[in-house]
Amino acid sequence: MRRIPKSALTLLVGLMLVTASACSSSAATSAPGASGASGGAGATSAASGSMAPGASASAAIDMTDPTQIITQVLNGTSNVKSFHIALAASGTIKAAALSDAAGSSKSGLTGDLKLDGTAVSGDVDVANSAAHLALTVPAMAAFGNIPITGDLIVVNNALYYQVSLLGTKYTKADLGSLASISPIAIPTPAASASAAISDQVSQIRTALTKSGVTAKLVGVDQIGGKDADHISVSVPLDLINSQIAASASAAPAMKIDSLAIDFWVYKDNYRLAKAEFNESSASFGNLDVTVTVSNYDQPVTITAPAASDILPSK
User: Fold this and answer.
1) Residue 117 backbone class (left: φ over 0; alpha: ψ -120 to 50; beta: rest)
2) For 114-163, how does the pLDDT look when each residue is reduced to its tens digit (9 = 90+)?
3) Is residue 179 within 8 Å of residue 186, measured between CB atoms?
4) What are the contacts of 94-97 at 24+ separation with CB within 8 A?
């Protein structure tokens, strides 16, 4: 039976592993406590005896090395049974940029697209391949200045989705049929799939190493009342802008002026706590995205909508 991937959790953790391991040789020197650097009131000692989920008692973790921390996070995802995820987006995307991206089809926008208040949140039941996510989009001129809500349920190998603009009932789709038309394959937990992912991570990591991607352990922050290691990832803007310029759909003046990527990892169990992406561009606009993961392994009940709430199949 096909299973949904370990959702955004594994994707985020995978990005963390790729970026941090691309620069492990420089991470320790810039980490709190290394070479006499101060990490603030919450800085951790390399002598910490905390262990990641599933790690052996002899596997000491270097708390100044983000690569080792993130590797433990990735290893620990195989033990995750469930979690709650919350995504919040804010910022303003310029109408001219969207119009340029739309090309001949045009975006139809007469003003900038303001994302403040956009949110997605819900529970993921990894053990049972199920998820229930809710979407909130603020009133935008492009959508008639009407706030939009949506609901998405994945359960029993079926997808149910409902969008307020289209009515109150859910549309049902079989996940197998979606996979056949989707440009993004739905991975399975087979060993071959895991090997393919590992190979892709290795290739991307090599490319990032050559491109000058760096990561450092900033210190310790409180996420949801718990201590979490803060890891900052730096990507050269020249690399990003060269990729944008090489895109056939990009406008000639389109470029990123600043970019910050940060991750937080719970210290007590080495699981992803939070991720932040902050981008600013004079030509594109600014975009801030925050993803928070909590309630690991808590009981989750996800059920399909009532039959009376589902549109008849065509």
Assistant:
1) left
2) 889 999 999 999 888 899 999 999 887 766 778 899 999 999 989 999 99
3) yes
4) 94/283, 94/284, 94/285, 96/283, 97/251, 97/254, 97/283, 97/284, 97/285
* Distance from C-alpha of 198 to C-alpha of 75, rounded to nearest angstrom: 12
Instruction: For residues 188 and 185, give the distance between their C-alpha atoms in angstroms, rounded to a whole number.
Output: 9
Q: How many CA atoms lie within 13 A of 302 on its CB side?
A: 28
8 A C-beta contact, residue 77 and residue 231: no
The pLDDT of residue 300? 93
Q: How far apart are CA 261 and CA 101, in angstroms?
A: 24
d(CA 5, CA 107) in angstroms, rounded, equals 32
Identity of the residue numbered 53: P
Q: Record the tokens describing residue 138, joined without a space.
A: 């603020």
Angle in degrees, CA 40, 46, 48, rounded to 5: 100
Cβ-in-10-Å burial (0-12, 13-18, 19+) of 201 comes to: middle
For residue 219 the two structure tokens come to 């210190």
Per-residue DSSP letter, 44 = P
Amino acid identity, residue 256? I
Structure tokens at 210: 């050559």
